[in-house]
Amino acid sequence: MIRLIIMLGCFLGILFLCYLLVGMEGRVIMTLPGTIVQTSLLGSFLIFLASFFTLLFIIWLIKKVLSITSGSRNWLGALSKKQRTQDFYQSINAMLMNEHEQARKLIDKTTDGDFQGTNFLIAAELARRSGDSEQAQAYLIQAMDYPICEPLALMKQAGLCIHNKQYDEAMNLLSAVEGNIRKTRTFVVLKLRILEGLNDWEQIQSYAKENKKLLEDDYFVWAQQWTVGEFSAIASKHGANALKLHWQELSRAQRKDQANQIAYLQLLIDQGLSAEAEKELIEVASKQHSEKYWGLFKQLNHPNPALAIKFIEQEIKKSPQNAALYSVLAHLAYNMHDFELANKAIVKALELKDNVTDKALLAAILEKRHEFEQANVVYRGLLQ
Fold first, then answer.
1. More reliable by pLDDT, 16 or 380
2. Lowest mean pLDDT among 43-57, 68-82, 146-160, 332-346
3. Most confident region among 16-20, 127-131, 305-309 by mean pLDDT
4. Crossing angle (nearest 10°) for helices 201-210 and 185-197
5. Backbone torsions φ then ψ of 294, nearest 5 degrees
6. pTM above 0.70, yes or no
7. What is the CA radius of gyration of the chain?
């Protein structure tokens, strides 16, 4: 609409100027090789306009010829632009339908179009999914020519570097990212993955805490990882006693942190201190009721985990329809070779909720009770 108004204004302006020149007296004399041309003011103005538009046409024609000879599809004009737009959207549809090869063929046809670099990002992702990291890198470099796509292109390149275990290069790329995208969950997780590759657990701890809200449930996963990394180093170098001493030296807030608790208790069990882990586990589980502790209870493997069994039985009385509690009880009983109790508990767990892991435990219990035929039935069900 704006272009139409401008063109109409220019046209009316030319007409008005022509009208003014009609009433003016005077002549313009032009000396050309071999001749002299005389014309009125209006005639000279029209000659100027004709020459100007002829020059524009010649420039346009030269550009089109160069475009055709260089292999560009722009010479088709509006038709070509429409086709590239269709190819762009069809490539997205094909990608969403997991038809990656078709999507790549379509997106490759859009490289001459103006999609603000988004087409190059899509092409890079398709190349990455096809295992062509080199081509993906080339597309991402092209996408960086567009300011709107540059931050995401840098992040994608960092992701490729992580895949190739080039963590220093990945960090350099990520450091170049600017703008609000740095405050997104995707950016935060990507940086944590790089720090993980660099084994910089101290920085992981600091950065994860800064972005706890963005990470949501993933914060617990990262918190557990940095704690495991720190505690494992102590246990491997100095043993279980040093680990217990380090735990006692932590602040109360650190000992109340669930991720720290789980990491510490897991290492106690791994170090063969199942009985000591049992007491600590019951203490923390009684204060913070969470299913995250059930996996640790299942791993207790000393001869008589009576305290743990008593605690789980009390929890069952509070929540008699909780299948997970019966599963924990079954594992505890199995580990202490009380196969009668283990059988009762696992059957009840499966009545409340079907679970592949619990079925596998049922088969193992039946085998221990020499009920081989029933055990085989359960095993066959698992295979199906």
1. 380
2. 68-82
3. 305-309
4. 170
5. -60, -35
6. no
7. 37
Q: Are strands 35-40 and 27-32 parallel, antiparallel or unpaired?
A: antiparallel
Q: Hey, do 76-148 and 294-384 end up sharing a CATH topology, with the first three levels equal?
A: yes
Specify whether domain 76-148 bears CATH 1.10.443. no
Tally the residues of the chain: 384
Long-range contacts of 101-107 (CB under 8 A, 24+ apart): 101/130, 104/130
**CA 195 to CA 171: how far, in whole Å?**
8
Structure tokens at 266: 């897991």
Query: Which amino acid is residue 203, in one-letter code?
Result: Q
Map residue 93 onto helix, strand or coil: helix
User: What is the overall mean pLDDT for the chain?
Assistant: 83
Using an 8 Å Cβ cutoff, are 262 and 293 in contact? yes
pLDDT digits (tens, 9 = 90+) for 210-247: 898 888 878 877 876 777 777 777 777 777 788 888 88
Where on the phi/psi map is residue 370: left (φ > 0), alpha (ψ -120 to 50), or beta?
left
Fold that domain 294-384 belongs to in CATH: 1.25.40
Q: What is the distance between the alpha carbons of residues 359 and 353, in angstroms, rounded to a whole number?
A: 11
Of 70-79, 185-194, 234-243, 247-256, the range with the lowest mean pLDDT is 70-79
Amino acid of residue 239: G
Q: Which two tokens stand for residue 66?
A: 């160069």
Three-class SS state of 273: coil
**Sequential DSSP letters for 7-54:** HHHHHHHHHHHHHHHHT---EEEEEETTEEEEEEHHHHHHHHHHHHHH
Given a contact cutoff of 8 angstroms between Cβ atoms, the answer to whether 231 and 246 are in contact is yes
* Contact between residue 271 and residue 240 where contact means Cβ atoms under 8 Å apart: yes
Burial environment of residue 204 by CB neighbours within 10 A (0 to 12, 13 to 18, 19 or more): buried
Residues 6+ apart with CB under 8 A from 224: 259, 262, 263
Between CA 158 and CA 187 the distance in angstroms is 10
Instruction: Please state the rounded mean pLDDT for residues 13-31.
Output: 62
Distance CA 243, CA 181 (A): 40
Tokens 């002549």, located at residue: 27
d(CA 85, CA 118): 12
Question: Among the listed ranges 37-41, 53-57, 148-152, 261-265, which one has the minimum average pLDDT value?
Answer: 37-41
Q: What residue ranges do the domains of the chain occupy? A: 76-148, 294-384
